[in-house]
Design a protein that fits this description.
By secondary structure, this protein is an alpha/beta fold. It contains five helices and six strands. The protein has a single domain, classed as Rossmann fold, CATH 3.40.50. 31% of the residues lie in helices and 18% in strands. Strand 5, helix 4 and strand 6 form a beta-alpha-beta unit. Helix 1 packs across helix 2. The mean pLDDT is 88.
Length: 190
């Protein structure tokens, strides 16, 4: 899993990552900002994602809403950033686990599961809170024969109410977002 940035611990990141899903966000800068984050992450760091796995990304998908949201903007935004032509469309299972933190391989299915076979599939997600949905999707892709799965997450969601996160936020110096910092290695890419 490669997180592009941290979010949730301040009002600005919450406004962006919750608000870009609002239909009215198409009229302001929130969707454009998410698109730019995706474009930078893939444009600057795709080689790093591929190098870590040892093969090029040749298919992609997004984590779909498990709350019945059919108009989620992330697939449309991700389709604009130069990913491979082959997109796997994921659908959440009708029966989602009662515990949203549960990681299981049956949480998602794909329109053409055979298209995952032998491929390096990039999963794009907007936020990682518990990681259960992205990890469950990775298990489903591996069960469909994917040779490699990489998760690219725009933001690792932090909550200052969680003691471990509060300690991390207290002990870690704040850095402004730098798009050149690689989500894979954590250092500046050349």
């Amino acid at each position: 899993m490669a997180p592009v940035a941290y979010a949730g611990h301040n009002a600005q990141s919450r406004r962006l990552l919750y608000g870009y899903k609002d239909p009215l966000a198409a009229r302001d800068d929130r969707r454009a900002t998410v698109l730019l984050m995706l474009f930078v992450a893939v444009g600057l760091h795709r080689r790093c994602l591929e190098s870590a796995v040892g093969r090029p990304v040749d298919a992609w998908t997004v984590v779909p809403s498990t709350r019945g949201r059919a108009d989620h903007p992330l697939p449309a935004l991700a389709s604009r950033i130069g990913l491979p032509h082959r997109r796997l469309i994921a659908t959440p299972a009708a029966d989602q686990p009662s515990d949203p933190r549960l990681v299981t391989h049956g949480r998602f299915s794909f329109d053409r599961p055979e298209d995952a076979a032998g491929r390096h599939v990039l999963i794009v997600d907007d936020t990682w809170t518990t990681g259960a949905r992205l990890q469950s999707m990775a298990l489903s892709l591996r069960a469909s024969g994917a040779a490699a799965v990489t998760g690219l997450v725009l933001a690792r969601w932090l909550s200052a109410e969680w003691p471990a996160t509060a300690g991390y936020l207290h002990d870690t110096p704040h850095r402004d977002f730098d798009p050149r910092i690689c989500p894979v290695s954590g250092v500046r890419c050349a």
